[in-house]
Amino acid sequence: MPPAVGGGLAGSELRPRRGRCGSQAARAVGPDVATEATARSPKRPAPSSRRFEAPGRWALLALVTLMSFATRFHRLDQPPHICWDETHFGKMGSYYINRTFFFDVHPPLGKMLIGLAGYLSGYDGTFLFQKPGDKYEHHSYLGMRGFCAFLGALLIPFAYLTVLELSQSLPAALLTAALLTFDTGCLTLSQYILLDPILMFFIMAAMLSMVKYNSCANRPFSAPWWIWLSLTGVNLAGALGVKFVGLFIILQVGWNTLSDLWHLFGDLNLSMVTVGKHLTARVLCLIVLPLALYTATYAVHFMVLNKSGPGDGFFSSAFQARLSGNNLHNASIPEHLAYGSVITVKSARMAVGYLHSHGHLYPEGIGARQQQVTTYLHKDYNNLWIIKKHNTNSDPLDPSLPVEFVRHGDIIRLEHKETSRNLHSHYHEAPLTRKHYQVTGYGINGTGDSNDFWRIEVVNRKFGNRIKVLRSRIRLIHLVTGCVLGSSGKVLPKWGWEQLEVTCTPYLKETLNSIWNVEDHINPKLPNISLDVLHPGFPEIMLEAHMVMIRGNSGLKPKDNEFTSKPWHWPINYQGLRFSGINDTDFRVYLLGNPVVWWLNLLSIALYLLSGSIFAVAVQRGARLPAEVEGLSQVLLQGGGQLLLGWMIHYFPFFLMGRILYFHHYFPAMLFSSMLTGLLWDTLLRLCAWSLASFSLAGHVHALGILSLLLGIAYSFYLFHPLAYGMVGPLAQDPRSPMAGLRWLESWDF
Amino acid sequence: MLGFLQRPVVVTADINLNVVALTAVGLLSRLWQLSYPRAVVFDEVYYGQYISFYMKRIFFLDGSGPPFGHMLLALGGYLGGFDGNFLWNRIGAEYSTNVPVWSLRLLPALAGALSVPMAYQIMWELGFSHCAAVGAALLILIENSLITQSRLMLLESVLIFFNLLAVLSYLKFSNSQKHRPFSPSWWFWLMLTGVACSCAVGTKYVGVFTYLLVLGVAAAHAWHLIGDQTLSNVHVLCHLLARAVALLVIPVLVYLLFFYVHLLLLCRSGPHDQIMSSAFQASLEGGLARITQGQPLEVAYGSQVTLKNVFGQPVPCWLHSHQSTYPMIYENGRGSSHQQQVTCYPFKDVNNWWIVKDPGRHQLVVNNPPRPVRHGDIVQLVHGMTTRLLNTHDVAAPLSPHSQEVSCYIDYNVSMPAQNLWRLDIVNRESDTDVWKTILSEVRFVHVNTSAILKLSGAPLPDWGFRQLEVVGEKLSRGYHGSTVWNVEEHRYGRSQEQKERELELRSPAQMDASRNLSFMARFSELQWRMLTVRSDDSEHKYSSTPLDWVTLDTSIAYWLHPRTSAQIHLLGNIVIWASASLATLVYALLFVWYLLRRRRRVCDLPEDCWLRWALAGALCAGGWAVNYVPFFLMEKTLFLYHYLPALAFQILLLPVVLEHVSGRLCRSQLQRSFFGALVVAWFASACHVSNTLRPLTYGDRSLSPSELKALRWKDSWDILIRKY
Description:
By secondary structure, chain A is of the alpha+beta class. Chain A has helices at residues 8-12, 20-29, 31-40, 54-73, 86-98, 109-120, 142-167, 170-181, 184-190, 196-215, 223-242, 247-266, 272-304, 317-320, 538-555, 595-620, 627-651, 667-691, 698-725; strands at residues 332-333, 342-347, 354-361, 371-376, 385-389, 411-416, 422-429, 437-442, 454-458, 474-478, 484-491, 500-505, 516-522, 529-530, 577-580, 589-591. Chain A is built from 19 helices and 16 strands. The radius of gyration of chain A is 32 Å and the shape is elongated. By secondary structure, chain B is of the alpha+beta class. In chain B, the strands form three sheets. In chain B, strands 9-8-5-4-1-12 form a six-stranded antiparallel β-sheet, with no helix packed on it. In chain B, strands 2, 3, 6, 7, 10 and 11 form a six-stranded antiparallel β-sheet that branches. A two-stranded antiparallel ribbon of chain B has the order 13-14. The longest helix of chain B is centred in the middle third of the chain and has 33 residues, at 233-265. Classes of the chains: A alpha+beta, B alpha+beta. Chain B: The chain crosses the membrane at residues 15-32, 58-79, 127-147, 153-173, 185-203, 240-265, 575-598, 610-634, 640-662.
């Protein structure tokens, strides 16, 4: 075993662990390592754990797993109606079964798995999942719930094993398992058709495999090392494939890998070739493999969803051509734009939609009281416009006239087909973007004024060229004011039916906002040409899908005067989420953490910061710690440090997010914080026992402490279990309710 | 005792002529023709308003930055004897004679001028040669964008000054740490670091990033100090305490001091009063205070009150009702109760008055002695002018169908009983028996029958509701939200029994006297919170840009154009300096990573002290650039080129660091070194040349012909204004 470079903290990273992998390694590498391991073993923080033989450990793990499955599957079928976001994710599962295309702000893996679970368990995708509270009746929903509960139940053995690996202490692992098993929040979140159990499963699995491969560090390139390393990569792909917050665990693994490589790099006994091998292995398993898997999920996603569905309008024209049932699929339309054509105009910016107008006026006080012009994401006959010459009102479709193509630089008029009003702009401020001009529909039966004239330009083309459907990127420049037609992407208030604002911007900067393309094109005088050019490659549609998701996510903004959950509410368990039921006659499920567990977690973070900094300062001051304390401080600083980092990475970024946030976003962080609690209390109690060693009862301090914590947590679960398993009867505000005494915070409304 | 008689009194002064000369040219470049142009230039139009408010001592609210920067500008106005009378409405408007332009622009210009010798000092304290230090100072001196920004009534140069001051004093402090800890100069520089940091934060919020950087470096140094086992524990503790006091406590205190002075100065009510809470408004002279002075404090049964919504979004408004009823059928076909409308109205009106009534009694006057209303009491609210009772029931609200409609009950004798009992819930109560207080108490009205809470939904009603804001009963109330909370603003005890008399009483203004002063901390926290949350809606500007445009100088801002000639001031950087500073950052980063990796493999290219110097210079200069630049990528506000200038100032300091390193360490032979020296001279000459070429746009003193202007348009994205004759 090479001496570790850097001394102090750095060297101990490479110390042999007592995990399975570690003990094998000791046997394999040779006597010197084995002796070193035994020489250090007095420092082991877990003298009691050595007494446990392998069967005992397995039995305990089995017990933990059993408890976890028992709690998660208990009353899984209750309530037999849609709860909370099941309405979305169940519906999306059905879309996969029906193979219809849809749009969601999250990556597809989670919903695909839900769909798969439903498919395998005999759900036929016919249930509509319309709104929370709808009864499932004869539809089979237990397969999907069971799948989520299964993954949710696995969290606990994973947490157990992670803590065991980090602390080498069974009591710590047991405490963690109890915290999570008896947390009503984790329980509730695991029992329904949601993305969260799937996400948390992948996060914990990634964490566990990372910890496992860390403890194989002294036997690099062995089979278990490779397995754990590549499993880490697989789980990272899974986490990111379910929700974008999976990025946080990637950051954590990335940080761990970097510091690992940094230690290897500083080890002068390793040749550069070996270091290069280490680097390559990590690049392969932690970058290439996850990326490949992540991409593969999208490939499956696009392959499965090949029918036109509710998500079409969010995507570009080219994208839609892939979907069977869409009017662009295998479409044959006239290729060049001519006067008299009926067209739809789509913004080049993702998820903005089609230029739209309808027979409603702008309300008084908002610009001129003329017809609204907006963009609209869905296909609709109000998206149709007729392209006309600016100076004549004669019908260009008159068969006697020759076909005249529209060319780059022409002055045109766009007439709305349904209402016969012209696209119009003038010096009035736009409804939302005050510095832009208002765009309206104006005129009667196509007769308006000179403010209806637009110059059509193709980006990056010469004057005089014809304009191609779908492929030409065009700009419409208002002739009188010189502004450019664009969509600001802002949502209009109720009077505008929450469609998006269209403005004429005087700033001629070239942005996607002001670029459009013609999508549908109807002109009976022109021959239809099959448009097989529209086959975007996989990288393009993947990129587009991401752009649309990111825009969708950032569009989820909280409105004014709305109660929103703030990140600082979460760790203090300030307020829960109603999963089902409101009134006292309803079957009510309320997502709320077990306050005993959560407040213990909160206390533990503070205690950890305190004790951790005391130890860190002591080490930095060069204090000589007794061997036992030294071992405990290593567990606290390194194992605990990883968990604390996990908690911070999964929690603090939410403070920076502008999108609307919900309580359940905290749960991944809560897993880390519970693991930290388990590890911390075990270590602190051991320290206590050590410092009281002179007293006769010292040996029992640790055991008693752990036992009382376990019992306390179990009792609190007994008190709060109705939150998760459902309650009927008077609300907790009512003193007659059995839950009345448990409403410890006024903000809890169960 | 009379020792000074026996020995001569000697004063020895070290005068670094470099510093003196640099200060002189700095002053010359920044102060030359300072009062030209005598017209409002760009953002002066914006800062000028606030200067006028300070001069007139009128309260205002500005979300763009803390008050220290504004106060500094106002100090210039005060010194110049400005009376605040100028209409700041248009860029390019000529200043009237009462505006002391020179002294208004003096402080930013001085800050800009002093940055030049400070750059020199920083380089010197970092342990680089005089040559590098002079180079750094000269680069700051000739950077056109810094000159332009310093010569106007703008805050960037002040911010840069305090940023550099914080770094400089920290360096001075940490250099004296080795030899003379706890000496007076050690204390002085340590304290100055803290003060400069809070001045930077007080000028603009982005100053906080430099503060964090200095804190980070200080923390790293302190961590080494802890590891120094030659020091005793007590000694280490003293060191840590001194740092904590100077770098954490003092900045907070100084920051509070800014607000204290700000609130002390602005004591009169003004145009932004409405955004603040009633209690805050009442603490200002005039305005609401004039109305509410001497109102009875405790709300009693029979009190006449106006109820203001605490959240006040989209506009501050008062609970209101009027004769009109909800339309039978809404546009979308839903039905209503056809009861009298209840809205929230953003103007003072006689229809905003409500009377608090005891459900058990009929009279609408206050008993003698008054019977105060307490937390948890059941009350009815009577609309003063129509004497109808505030009511809500299970009918969908006009615009928020998930909530209940709120109305004033009209008995149509249909099967729709009155449900007009409300439980009073004082949110900020201290005990459960608290009395409802005017202005101070924030209350919620919980409907007794349905547990709905009276809430401002914020949606403007259609024409039938006169575009007033919708008020609803929120059934699913989730915790605390300002829109469900109301406070009494105007208040008096009702005396008149008869409706006619009462109407007269309602129309007469309330008056009596007493003052209710908020504590400073309460006012500070409210003001700071409002400043951080107030929203400005302009998200686009002709000259706005994105952070990516800044590094390559792909954008510019036209500041001012002479009304007749084409003399103009244009914010443009010295492109040679910008490009080479970016290049230097890249070279620094690559070299740093290279050295770091090699050190890890025990190959030490640099001696230890040289490496530490190199790392510290990087941490402060490259780090200063990064912390002042990267956060802008996350900001959603409108960004301009001048936001980059604080980062640029740090980046320029990195240039001589890299140049000296390359010439001293990487050039192996004397020949290479001479060659490199010649290159540097040539490069510097070209920077000077560019600076001189752009000078007419920087100072705006010379009118250029259209062809000359076209020749200056080196990038297509520069919007240099060319007059068409």
